[in-house]
Amino acid sequence: MKIALPDPTGHLSDYRLTGTPIPATPMGADPARVVFSAAHVVADPFTPSDPSGKAAVDWDSTMAFRRHLTDLGLGIAEAMDTAQRGMGLDWPGALDLITRTRAEVPDALVFNGCGTDHLDPAEARTLDDVRRAYVEQVEAIQKVGGRLILMASRALVRVATSPDDYISVYRDVLAACDQPVILHWLGQMFDPALAGYWGANSFEQGLETALDVIAENEAKVDGIKISLLDKDKEIQMRRRLPASVKMYTGDDFNYPELIAGDDQVYSHALLGIFDPLAVAVGKAMGQLGQGDVAGFHATLDPTVPLARLIFGAPTQFYKTGVVFLAWLNGHQDHFVMLNGAQAMRPLPYFTQVFQHADQCGLLSDPDMAVQRMRRLLAVYGVA
Length: 383
Prior knowledge:
By secondary structure, this protein is an alpha/beta fold. It has helices spanning about 60-70, 90-105, 125-145, 155-160, 165-175, 205-215, 230-240, 255-260, 280-290, 295-300, 305-310, 320-330, 345-360, 365-380; strands at about 1-5, 10-15, 35-40, 75-80, 110-115, 145-150, 180-185, 220-225, 245-250, 270.
């Protein structure tokens, strides 16, 4: 099977598909790691609302995708940035999503993003403003029986003046949590407004503050997700975590190595890239659980070039590649995103994502994927 694809100059050449689709294989009842996929949302393409306005979600397709993830044995990290939280999905929309997912898959492993995104950072004046915003979301999510991922706060960056301010705010917010939470250290490559998080100008300074927060509140912390796209920083931190606290890799560039681990410790996973890679993840984690480390790497390692492409700079627009693959694979009938985000990558990006996905077996129905790719090319004027 082949398709004519354009290069960046518009010149067409035939690309012949070579990949063998990975079958949907659940990861098994006793997985070697705790694995979450940060799941995307499906936009309603028929809404009359302007893309820059209130989010309009296709709830049936969005919930169907969550069933797809749970059928493979993956946990769901709900209402995170992969769901365009803060980039199309506001707090009321996020709470609606959290509530619906809780009802749809009540027995699944689901943790939910909890932040301060309903507080405009420009209107935050004091640490108490940030505390109140966090606790409002904590209480709302816990009211519907949800577990928490405590997300980084743009408002806290604005008003905090020292590491002690972060320690104080996290102490008070964690005190309001009724079960252990996952902390999230999100780097500025994902959100430029988070530069200087933990009141630090360097990773080393930020690391010490984050570890202080964990040490003071160990009983309230299930783990920490670190999203800095730097495996050495993650390894450095996970070697210093208390034994009771998990490291959840957020490194979409180096996840196979970090999940496999070294002679001291390994990482669990909470990744946006595990949304389009779900079938490969199910297979690979089953292999790892059976002690087949070579098989684990043989399944996941070939997906890394695709992940690095999808998460290439500007990294915050990685969601476009995630939803593009969901469309190619038939999880939704269109390639429309909240906030018009389908337009945030150029055509060569899509052609490369298509090729990489084929080569690592992630086009579940190659015939359908080719047909849909041709439809996208026609939109760009490719005959």
